């Protein structure tokens, strides 16, 4: 006995291949892992670009301000930024008398004048031995650095400031070598040293 008839294949519903026909209420499929990783990488890059933009803006403002200062200096007769860079990297410096000498020498010589003058003044001030020793130690250090760096150097050996400082240091050394390291300077020796310091300072 024949079985029941099979349903016709023409009557079965066909799956829809049109993706637009799908219901709009269904949520979109999640993006693949590679796409999610790419999107996560873009976020810090955008933040870095924003930071770079802010830095560039700040740098531009600094440049504009420097240009304004340079323009103002040029209006006042200065050399502006170019002159400032030349002065910064130039190893030489112009003295009060118009001579050009090494900056390092001028710095060392001025330090000798300052510390030695202060030590002589502290010895007269109030008889404070501790204060006098501190001033004397500072003077010894500056004199040692000056002699170690510039003694007999052809660039400065004939300069008036060098000759005057050499006289002051020689007078001080001769007195203490005879009277001892703890002796008090007499007025005539002290005045001679101060005169030499003043002469040296006039050429620095």
Work out the number of β strands. 2
* N-to-C CA distance: 133 Å
Q: Regarding CATH, which class of the domain at 100-203?
A: Mainly Alpha
Strand content: under 5%
Largest β sheet strand count, sense and barrel closure: 2 strands, antiparallel
CATH topology-level name of the domain at 100-203: Methane Monooxygenase Hydroxylase, Chain G, domain 1
Quaternary state of this entry equals: single chain
**How much is the average pLDDT?**
73
Order of helices and strands: HHEEHHHH
- Major beta sheet, strand line-up: 1-2
Task: List strands and helices in order, with pairings.
Layout: H1 33-75, H2 80-89, E1 92-94, E2 100-102, H3 103-125, H4 129-150, H5 160-179, H6 187-202
Antiparallel strand pairs: 1-2
Helix pairs in contact: 3-4, 3-6, 5-6
Can you characterise this structure?
The protein is mainly α and 204 residues long. It has a domain at 100-203: Methane Monooxygenase Hydroxylase, Chain G, domain 1 (Up-down Bundle), CATH 1.20.58.810. Helix content is 66%, strand content 3%. It contains 6 helices and 2 strands. Strands 1-2 form a two-stranded antiparallel ribbon. β1 (92-94) and β2 form a beta hairpin. α3 runs antiparallel to α4 (129-150). It is extended and about 100 Å long. Residues 1-46 are annotated as: Disordered. One of its GO terms (cellular component) is chloroplast thylakoid lumen. InterPro entries: PSII_Psb27, PSII_Psb27_sf.
